[in-house]
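User: Thanks for the earlier help. One more: DNA ligase-associated DEXH box helicase. Can you show the sequence and predicted structure together?

Assistant: Of course, both are below.
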Amino acid sequence: MPLISFTDKGLYCAQGNFYIDPWQPVDKAVITHAHSDHARPGSQAYLCHHHTLPLLQLRLGQGHYQAVEWNEKVYFNEVTVSLHPAGHIIGSSQIRVEYKGEVWVVSGDYKTEADGFSGDFEPISCNTFISESTFGLPIYNWKPQQEIYHDIQNWIRTNEVANKTSVLIGYSLGKAQRLLKAVEEVTGSIYVHGAIWNVHETLTQAGWKLPAVQRITPDMPKETFKSSVVIAPPSADGSPWMRRFSPHSTGICSGWMQVRGNQRRRNADAGFALSDHADWNGLLKAVKATGAEKVFITHGFQSAFSRYLNEIGIDAHEVKTEFGTEDEESQLTN
């Protein structure tokens, strides 16, 4: 029996009787991070990193939660479980599962460049590695974060000269916090959508030091936003909610913006390939660093990435899951 099985409820460890990021309610759920495609409501008990705890409570409500530090060992029967930095978003973790000397690692979503928030991705030696491949094609090759920040800042300055509001589109958990760090260097007037405000409040109450923002409310006059910066989730893009910022320029912040056609298709004025996922080289680096004899690819460009791994001598297999289906970043392809 494999240490982790792929079932209709999610990734299941029979020896420890728990699931990792289940997409149906279960008794025991170990959660990699708080994005909605990995953390779903209804389970009896949740185990997560302590930075993820307030975010789970925000998104799933009250429940039975156990929060641990990275590298802290938890025991399910004879199975040892520990959480390790994934670098994807705040609190995001890889799940290390060990039983009788065999080690599997479930990476969840991850990126290998440190962003100053999410913890530095930690390669973990294992027999079997379960990896995403959201951007598992060679075309996806990110510029350094600081370089992208400079591009965003210069774009904002250009909009200010033209008396335009700069509207940045990014996922409310993960992307928005990184954008705040980029934006605070060029303006003190930062306004945010309610969905981003809710996450912002949760994180600041948990002790995170984030730039000051103002929540956008219906009673704010249009003049309030002139030459300012607005951060909004993808769901707001193209909606009537955006009209209050006119004249404005829209910049979409997503790894999908690496392909110029996506920017045109979204009618965006600018596209910034700022992603919370590893690029092609990051994925390869992560997989090789584990030394795993077998790799399972869960979501993204599974066919291309797993085929390449097999070509270079790494035993790789595609697995169908429900990950990636509710992440607002992935919806930018729709």
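User: Great, one quick takeaway?

Assistant: The chain is about 20% helix and 25% strand.
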